[in-house]
Amino acid sequence: MGAVKTKRMPRAVREQQMLDAAVETFGRRGYMAASMDEIAELAGVSKPLVYLYLNSKEDLFTACIRREAEALVGAVRAGVDTGLPADRQLWDGLLAFFAHTGRHPHAWSVLHIQARTHGETFAAEAAAMRAEIVAFVTQLIVVAAREAHRDPDLPEREVAGLAEALVGAAESLAAWANTAESVTPRQAAATLMNFAWAGLGNLMTGHPWSPPEP
Prior knowledge:
The protein is mainly alpha-helical. The protein has helices spanning 11-29, 36-43, 47-54, 57-78, 86-103, 105-117, 120-149, 157-177, 185-204.
């Protein structure tokens, strides 16, 4: 009888396997310390195959940034129902953000730390992801602001700074939540909602914004 042929793994599947290993290695060890040998070993493939598929360490890292940025933005957008009130949309978006970054701490390290500190090309990829999230948050806030001011023509620039501040706070809070013990995505989201939506005034007087029941 002839030898049994094993089914060859599709290239796209193998590439994702390599990217999974690369994200974990970059996130855990940092871009400079991570080696292609270590990534190949974790992926269960040869180093020449990693180079064949992804050309170089720089190209591999860029592919990791792009994949994880797309996944994070997609998770936030998928978590928001635009038919709900503005505060609920913001809550759901924040909850989706913290849930995703909590489930994928190595990916968040790649996006939030490694990509920003190892070259302009990498930083530009991370900045594009951040700009998309800021634009999304701006739309959520401007709807609420127009309703509050009873001005349907209130320009986006009036809330652009608030969106930038909110995204910056979420980024810092995600980094903290991933290193602190027993901080759930719901707790992180509620902390930011109380700070951003209810405002410090309500928080200090004992009237915080209350998240909906899960």
